[in-house]
Design brief:
- This protein has 415 residues and is α+β, with helices and mostly antiparallel strands.
- It folds into three domains: 49-182, Uridine Diphospho-n-acetylenolpyruvylglucosamine Reductase, domain 3 (2-Layer Sandwich), CATH 3.30.465.10; 186-286, 2-Layer Sandwich (Alpha-Beta Plaits); 289-384, 2-Layer Sandwich (Alpha-Beta Plaits), CATH 3.30.70.
- 30% of the residues lie in helices and 24% in strands.
- It has 13 helices and 18 strands.
- A hairpin with a 4-residue loop joins strand 16 and strand 17 (337-342).
- The longest helix has 15 residues, at 249-263.
- The two termini are 23 Å apart.
Amino acid sequence: MADVIRPETREQVLDAVKWAISEEAPLEILGRGTKRALGRPLQVDHSLDVSALAGIALYEPEELVLTAGPGTPLAEIGEAVAAKNQMLAFEPPDWGPLLGGEAGQATLGGLVSTNMAGPRRIKYGAVRDHVLGLHAVSGRGEMFKTGGRVVKNVTGYDLSKLMTGAYGTLGVLTELTLKVLPAPETERTVLLFGLKPAAALAAMTAGLKSPHDVSGAAFLPGRVADRTRAGHETEGGVSVTALRLEGFGPSVDARAEALHDLLQADAPVREIEDGESRAVWADIRDVAPFRPAAGQPADAAPALWRVSVAPTDGLAVAAAIEQATGAETFLDWGGGLVWAAVPAGVEDAGADVVRGAVAAVQGGHATLIRGPEPVRAAIDVFQPQPAPRRALSRRVKESFDPKGVLNPGRMYAGV
């Protein structure tokens, strides 16, 4: 078991990194470890646990700005902003149960390090679009900061975007400033039951192209829908297509009526509001249908792929993976995000099939979110990079972490 270093200040983080550099001792960077099984497995003797760098240091609701430590639980941040009728608009997922852990333990640092957003990404963008600034310690043993605490900020090269989604390979985050937005007064989801995949894609596309400001669009095949709260609205085995509307009550009423007129779906339709609607989208956000069965280790559960493609290509990619591996799939982001659960026992978690499906549509990327450690060590967990991009990634890594002490190999072997 790795020795754990637990700094309580950013200065102690700096000291720990300097020690690691001097000893050429690689470090695993973690908070509460909810995403520890995401990415390539690390071979390190020491962990740098930044969970003590926690707490909201600044929150100015009138300025739509919040600053907190990387170890701050997202649940704490969610409660704080909800009390002011605000939100993290990119809808951060809670993948604790998905990866074999507990719910409600995810931290801000892990969220920013992985850049994982939920269903509202189609409207509000990714996590990196909401990071205004950060403080970090590089693998050179230097403190640095980038960005600031204002929404409109020009400070040269935007290192915040580079650090977001770097999986801790470029620096140890010690403080983060994010943009928050007003929460909607109400939300309503239009559920269409029993649509075939092509008809579901057409409905989602029509809704997203309309002026009705749809903030979520997902398609759950029957067996998948049965394992969500959307399936509670059916007798079982019936597909569910969900379109979400948010905003002021009268506006949502008018847009829902207009959406009905637009879709004219030849299928049963039901609307759910507020608490019911939020529960359905929480299941979609957290990929609840593909959580391990009760008592099942995450390593023994189906391998889970997250595939991002053009929305018009989502169905083709899902179908190709299903036919070749027997996977279960569902679509989010109007078809642009495919979740595929590949049965245990399929060679290399179906990596060749998934990569081939992405290559066939000539654009997109796939990430193995959950899989056995030997598989994650043997295959490309993240989308393979063409040679020029791979060389650039290596140069960036060497610029920030020349000794390779920060999460070495977490994303790509040798980087």
